[in-house]
Amino acid sequence: MEWKFTIHKNYIEISTNGIADKDSSIAMAKAITGEMRKNKIKKVLIDHGNLDTVTGSVLDIYERPKIFNIIGAILGIRIAEVIKPEHLEHFKFLETVCVNQGFQLQIFIERDQAIQWLLS
Predict the structure, then answer these.
(1) pLDDT tens for residues 73-96?
(2) Is 80 exceeded by the pLDDT of residue 18?
(3) CA 27/CA 67 separation, integer angstroms
């Protein structure tokens, strides 16, 4: 998976494309954490609308919050992810797992709704 950062006044936006797998997702999370620290921003919009494929086992998703903690994800962050409808099952499970571990993460199909939630 490839990604590109755009820094806005109140949030960081990441646009992705390609194939999302465990390794690239962890690498992206590390990069996001670095950008958040550097820019002192705690809100992130991840636009996965151009992903071709999403892979990963249930166990990979279940362990994602633990990995976020290991890489030093900032406490109090707010993450909105925009996805394609065909990836909803995968990302809704990720949302549930992350929320259960104390992360503020919401999944959206519509970009406008994601930005509204993120900035509320």
Answers:
(1) 666 789 999 999 999 998 999 999
(2) yes
(3) 11
CATH number for the domain harbouring residue 107: 3.30.750.24
Q: What is the mean pLDDT of residues 36-57?
A: 92
If 0-12 CB within 10 Å is exposed, 13-18 middle and 19+ buried, where does residue 51 land? middle
pTM of the model: 0.89
Q: What is the DSSP string of 76-101?
A: T-EEEEE--GGGHHHHHHHHHHHHHT
> Structural domain of residue 114, as residue ranges?
2-119
- Asked if residue 65 lies in contact with residue 97, where contact means CB atoms within 8 angstroms, the answer is yes
Which residue in the block uniquely carries the two structure tokens 């993460």? Answer: 105
As a whole number of angstroms, the distance between CA 101 and CA 47 comes to 22
Tokens of 17: 């494309």
In sequence order, the β-bridge partners of residue 53 are: 19
For residues 46-63, give the mean pLDDT.
86
